[in-house]
Design goal:
The complex is a heterotetramer of chains A (about 325), B (about 325), C (about 325) and D (about 290). Chain C is α/β, with parallel strands linked by helices and about 325 residues long. In chain C, about 30% of the residues lie in helices and about 25% in strands. Chain C has 2 domains: about 10-90 and about 170-310, P-loop containing nucleotide triphosphate hydrolases (Rossmann fold, 3-Layer(aba) Sandwich), CATH 3.40.50.300; about 105-170, no CATH class. Chain C is built from 9 helices and 12 strands. Chain C is globular and about 65 Å long. The chains are: A alpha/beta (about 325), B mainly alpha (about 325), C alpha/beta (about 325), D mainly alpha (about 290).
Chain lengths: ~325, ~325, ~325, ~290
């Protein structure tokens, strides 16, 4: 495995919640480690409130992390570019948003974003930009004639492809896709996912796929990281982490996402919401975990390697 | 708790009003009292000039000290002495006027808000009915007339021409002020015409605010889910649509207080109604700056107080705001 | 197949329009006691419109332009407002799509139950509060939430309250309009497990509207598939789950579903863009995206054929 | 033609009429200040709207008065929205301390009643249209600053603004190219509202005698009308024409404002629900 393009080390993000005299914090992410290699799709999986979108925005430099390192090719950009992302960073890392309806400016034609990206990063001049935008649309399976239309005239699937074309316009090395297909109908969802697979395989771009849908993640990702209450529960090869998870929360998520079991089997785990405001010590899932032991609430879960590249953050996990 | 934040905002606004009131006369070039004295071309004897300087708190002491003495005076309720009503203290002159303004403008405001909201709610409920199609254009046309012009027209037509209503002062000369019936009756009769013009002028605004809010609420999920549970139209109208639509209207009511009160002041002038408006006119025409500043303070503080009351009311009515 | 019980709700050739646009075109379906009919379709297919229209609960500017909707034998489309009000909540209950924001923020949870009971003649003295408490327990909520304000509850909890309110008067028919779309998969699973359990106990009929076909294959007795305002196929869920889908669109939807763990196949998208009811393609509305399309399909709309397995396609037989 | 179009057409027609009166008027009528006849003469063939308390022609005064009133109204309307929008947008977009400070200034000025402040300012400053404009702008901008700030805050969190940031757009372009175009219809309806407010407040102040009493404007006309106690004598023609003109202009602006509001917020336009009730059934096919 060559050195990863992107590495998150001990990333922490918190939001002040007011409160007096002691400031209360919502801990959106805590001590997150994550690697994404070139030509690889890593799925960041979790329910709402798990912190997955926040981490996506940290990588896209839309959200500042209050702790940890964000290494691009080994360089910690949080230290090298403290004020905010440089144009060079923007050329290498792009973001595709969840809501195709909100990510396009209703006032401009859909080609506007792609054209601006091309011009800003010198991939086109005023003379050649129109032709390059049309080429960009064709590359994601959109007709050239759509370039001048306004967002309201396009379907959800078409708009999401425009968003992808916009991200590709700068020839990025890493694409962060924040739940790219959750607002799309099933019938067009697979094509958009397959588009990401092609970006990784044919153009060896790195893709960080943020999603709550295990099925989509299983379909296209090489590795998967399962998040709960802002902390990594399990990470490793997608086939194993998503299909035969070892961490109790990952198992609960897989059981709840599995279809075709006739709604018979009860879920392994009690209902509840993730503790994120001034969370208690220990494993955040302890209160809901069917296999919890006293140690779970006492200290943070150790990181156990159940296989060479398959880590489980759980007191009960047995090393390989 | 955003109520605490809102109330602290009003305290801050009050302090800004006090300070503005202190700074304004001093910001003028030259010695304000001297400039005023010149304007009076000798109609004022030196002794009145001294009183003037005192009331404006102008002295050679350093600015900060003057400010402190100014605040001290205010704390003791001394607003200086009025020129027009010389030597009556400003506080006393304003006291009487404030009472009548609250009675007239306050009454008209509440009637206009209640009537307007009721009509607006009914117009939204009977979408397409005559209240929804005829009233809004009519009322907004009436609302387009300046307050005081409606007062003039009403005073001329109903007062002078038809003589149905008295057109001057707050009560007839034949009654003695005090807690007796005929004084109260006369006060009401005198307030009816000016009050009515104010209600008519502002009714359109309240109606449209409520109607637009209500139209929105009637399309929202709670009302639809209430209908799906077979709730009666009365229940849906009162406990769902009206209560949900009233909250935003109350907030806009708070915000419009300052504006509506200004309109009321002008109406008072047309009717010679002895409220703050009349005082304001006399203060301006008589260039009685101490009275003018006193009026500015009392009107501003009254509006701030009313806003605070409305905010407390809104929080009391909305459980979401209480958490 | 046992003789289907007398249907609690029978909808025949229902048509609904928004201004000139016919959003639902002659849709028919029926549901019997203890049965669950799933209405599935993608965005713009008219699935919610059809179900809300049948109950006369479709908001303006929608209006019904044809068909019948018999609830326990009475055609809802012919009843006046008071007669409908008697049935809404008592004989048929709706759990709306926006259930997360459907509770009145100015009323406590308990007040919602009290007003629903009162609207149907249950006087407060007749133990309304106890019934409400038992209903909350049935949907997995602590009865003390009767005194909670809606904004204090999580999305999942508000959804459960809406379901409990639906069951308040033991209606023979419960209609759910995408009840769990906005919820996380774990909370969704818990609510659906409880719903199936409640139906097994009370035996009410259920109409479940969703875009999630995979979910219906587990939950529903029969599945009705809508495309651009028209019913394209209606069949037992077991038949569809076993690969017995006949209409090209249904087969396309099933092929587009992500594979279950261990399932070998790769999902395949349906080409083209979903038809727009405001400007529908002539003839069969699916023909522009249909792999089997023949010239006839773009001219003449297909009739619906079959009884227990109905299909609206020129080239495929019903059963 | 929908209700919205009718409204905006009538509104536009009214405004056009008065703009013509304001522009061409003074050349069509006699000298408004000249004493042309006996005071308080009722309308006659010679003086269609009769004469004022000083014997001046009321029609001339009303027509000429339109120019300064409308001019100040429109100028203030545009400037007050521009100033408010600039402050509101800055506070909304920059956020942090700037938003806190500017937000505070906006809220404090909003809560203070306008008239007493205007009276004090107008009393201290030399009377005249410039003072009038300054006073109105100084007391009027906070309302629009609040509206624009709220809109910018909403827009700032939209994905398409984040998308512009992610592709590396400089901040000024994000504001100018992505955010401001979305404010167009809002600024339009605000300007109309501001003009309506400016005319009303200006006339009010002039009626108080705080305008330039020597100049001819609708406000001063009304001031002299009450000053000469035309009211008590019953000389309705000295104040009714000005009032009607004011109302027509106000109504025209209000109608235009409705049309712009509906464009900015389509929910108002749709002939949406009234009392919740069963879905109507209108059988067309058998």
């Amino acid at each position: 495995m060559t050195a990863p393009l992107l590495s998150l080390r001990g990333i922490g993000v918190r939001f002040p919640q007011g409160g007096w005299p002691r400031h209360r914090f919502l801990r959106a992410a805590h001590a997150v480690d994550l690697d994404v290699g070139r030509g690889e799709i890593v799925a960041l999986v979790g329910e709402s409130g798990s912190g997955k979108s926040t981490l996506g925005r940290v990588v896209a430099r839309l959200q500042e992390a209050h702790a940890g390192q964000l290494l691009l090719d080994g360089v910690d950009v949080l230290r090298s570019e403290p004020g905010g992302a440089s144009l060079a960073y923007r050329r290498r890392v792009q973001l595709v948003f969840q809501d195709p309806f909100a990510s396009l400016n209703p006032v401009h034609p859909v080609g506007h974003g792609v054209a601006r990206s091309l011009l800003l990063h010198g991939h086109a001049t005023a003379a050649t930009v129109r032709e390059r935008v049309q080429a960009g649309f064709a590359a994601v399976g959109l007709g050239k004639e759509l370039v001048d239309r306004h967002p309201y005239a396009l379907s959800g699937g078409q708009r999401q492809r425009v968003a992808i074309a916009r991200a590709l316009a700068v020839e990025p090395e890493l694409i962060v896709a924040d739940e790219p297909t959750s607002m799309l109908d099933v019938s067009v969802r697979t094509d958009v996912l397959r588009l990401f697979r092609r970006l990784a395989d044919a153009e060896s771009r790195a893709v960080l796929l943020v999603t709550h849908d295990l099925a989509s993640a299983r379909l296209v990702s090489d590795r998967a990281v399962v998040l709960y209450a802002g902390r990594v529960m399990e990470s490793g090869p997608a086939a194993r982490v998503l299909a035969e998870p070892r961490h109790p929360y990952a198992r609960l998520l897989a059981a709840a996402s599995r279809r075709h079991d006739g709604l018979a089997a009860p879920l392994p785990g009690r209902p509840g919401t993730p503790p994120v405001v001034d969370p208690p010590p220990g494993c955040p899932f302890a209160a809901r975990c069917p296999e919890a032991i006293p140690a779970c609430t006492a200290a943070d879960a150790p990181v156990v390697a159940v296989a060479p590249d398959h880590l489980v953050h759980c007191h009960r996990a047995e090393p390989a | 708790m955003n109520l605490v934040r809102r109330l602290s905002l009003y305290l801050l606004a009050a302090w800004v009003a006090l300070t503005l009131n202190f700074i304004l006369p001093r910001a003028m070039p030259g010695d304000p009292a001297q400039a005023l004295y010149a304007r009076f071309q000798g109609r004022l004897d030196p002794e009145a000039l001294g009183a003037l300087r005192l009331t404006l708190g102008i002295s050679d002491a350093p600015m900060f000290e003057q400010y402190m003495s100014y605040l001290g005076q205010l704390a003791r309720g001394e607003l200086g002495t009025s020129l027009v009503y010389f030597p009556a203290p400003v506080g006393e002159v304003i006291g009487v006027g404030l009472g009548w303004t609250l009675f007239l403008a306050g009454g008209a405001l509440i009637v206009a808000f209640a009537l307007g909201s009721g009509l607006g709610a009914w117009a939204a409920w009977r979408r397409g009915g005559w209240t929804d199609t005829l009233l809004p254009p009519l009322l907004s046309f009436l609302g387009a007339f300046p307050y005081f012009w409606l007062a003039m027209a009403a005073a001329w037509f109903f007062g002078v021409q038809l003589g149905w209503f008295p057109v001057r002062h707050a009560y007839g000369p034949e009654v003695t002020p005090g807690w007796n019936l005929d004084f109260a009756a006369s006060a009401v009769r005198h307030a009816l015409l000016p009050g009515a013009t104010m209600v008519v002028a502002s009714l359109g605004g309240w109606m449209l605010t409520m109607r637009n809010t209500m139209v929105g609420v009637l399309g929202d999920e709670p009302v639809r889910f209430g209908l799906a549970r077979g709730l009666s139209p009365r229940r849906l109208f009162v406990d769902y649509a009206l209560r949900l639509a009233l909250l935003p209207s109350l907030t806009s009511f708070g915000m419009a207080l300052g504006f509506v009160l200004s309109g009321a002041l002008l109406t008072e002038m047309v009717f010679g109604y002895p409220g703050q408006g009349m005082l304001l006119l006399q203060a301006v025409r008589g260039q009685d700056y101490p009275l003018l500043q006193g009026l500015f303070l009392t009107i501003t503080l009254a509006v701030l107080g009313a806003n605070a009351v409305v905010d407390v009311l809104v929080v009391a009515l909305d459980p979401r705001a209480r958490s | 197949m046992a003789e289907p019980t007398v249907p609690v709700l029978e909808v025949q050739d229902l048509s609904i329009a928004y201004g000139p646009v016919r959003a639902v075109d002659r849709v028919s379906f029926a549901v019997g006691r203890g049965e669950t009919v799933g209405m599935v379709g993608e965005s713009g297919s008219g699935k919610s419109t059809a179900v809300l229209g049948a109950l006369r609960l479709l908001p303006a500017p929608g209006r019904i332009v044809g068909g019948t909707a018999r609830l326990e034998g009475h055609d809802l489309l012919a009843l006046d407002a008071p007669a409908l009000r008697e049935r809404w909540g008592a004989r048929v209950a709706l759990v709306p799509q926006g259930a997360l924001s459907s509770l009145n923020p100015l009323l406590r949870v308990g007040d919602h139950f009290a007003e629903t009971f009162a609207a149907h003649g249950v006087r407060p003295s007749e133990g309304g509060r106890e019934r409400a408490a038992s209903l909350l327990a049935k949907v997995g909520l602590d009865p003390r939430h009767l005194d909670s304000w809606p904004h204090a509850l999580s999305g999942g909890m508000r959804q459960r309250v809406a379901i409990a309110l639906g069951l308040a008067l033991d209606p023979p028919l419960l209609v759910l309009d995408e009840p769990t779309t906005a919820l996380d998969v774990v909370v969704e699973r818990e609510i659906l497990l409880q719903l199936v359990q409640l139906q097994r106990e009370a035996g009410f009929a259920m109409v479940f509207v969703t875009h999630d076909l995979a979910l219906l294959l587990e939950l529903a007795t029969r599945v009705a598939v809508l495309y651009a305002g028209r019913l394209v196929e209606e069949a037992p869920a077991a038949v569809l789950a076993a690969g017995g889908a006949r209409h090209p669109y249904t087969r396309g939807l099933l092929a587009a579903l992500p594979p279950a763990p261990g399932e070998a196949r790769l999902p395949v998208s349906i080409p083209g863009v979903a038809a727009n009811v405001a400007d529908p393609p002539p003839g069969c509305r699916y023909h522009p995206r249909c792999p089997l399309a023949e010239p006839r399909c773009s001219v003449e709309a297909p009739a619906t054929r079959g009884t227990t397995h109905r299909v609206a396609c020129h080239l495929v037989e019903g059963a | 033609m929908s209700r919205g179009d009718l409204r905006s057409r009538v509104g536009a027609a009214l405004l056009l009429l008065f703009v013509l009166v304001a522009v061409a008027g003074p050349w069509l009528v006699a000298d408004p200040v000249a004493l042309v006849a006996k005071p308080l003469e009722p309308p006659s063939a010679e003086h269609w709207l009769g004469t004022t308390g000083q014997g001046q022609d009321v029609l001339a005064q009303t027509v000429v008065g339109a120019r300064s009133t409308l001019l100040v109204g429109v100028v203030v309307g545009i400037l007050v929205v521009a100033l408010g929008a600039a402050i509101g947008a800055t506070a909304g977009f920059l956020g942090g301390v700037a938003d806190l400070v500017l937000g505070l200034v906006i809220n404090v000025s909003l809560v203070m009643p306008g008239l007493p402040l205007m009276v004090i300012l107008a009393a201290w400053l030399p009377p005249g249209p410039v003072t009038m404009a300054l006073v109105l702008i100084f007391t009027g901008w906070p309302w629009h600053a609040r509206v624009v700030r709220a809109q910018v805050l909403a827009l700032r969190n939209r994905d398409f603004v984040a998308a512009a940031v992610v592709r590396g757009e400089p901040t000024w372009r994000v504001v100018a190219v992505e955010i401001l175009p979305n404010l167009a219809s809002l600024l339009g309806s605000s300007a109309v509202g501001a003009t309506l407010y400016a005319i009303g407040a200006q006339v009010g102040l002039e009626f108080l005698g705080l305008g330039d009493l020597a100049s001819v404007s609708w406000g001063t006309n009304l001031y002299w009308a009450t000053n000469d106690s035309a009211l008590l004598v019953g000389a309705w023609w000295t104040f009714v024409p000005t009032g009607v003109c004011l109302a027509l202009v106000g109504f025209g602006l209000a109608l235009l404002g409705f049309a712009l509001d509906e464009r900015a917020n389509p929910r108002l336009a749709v002939s949406s629900s009234g009392a919740p009730g069963p879905t109507p059934v209108e059988r067309t096919d058998g």
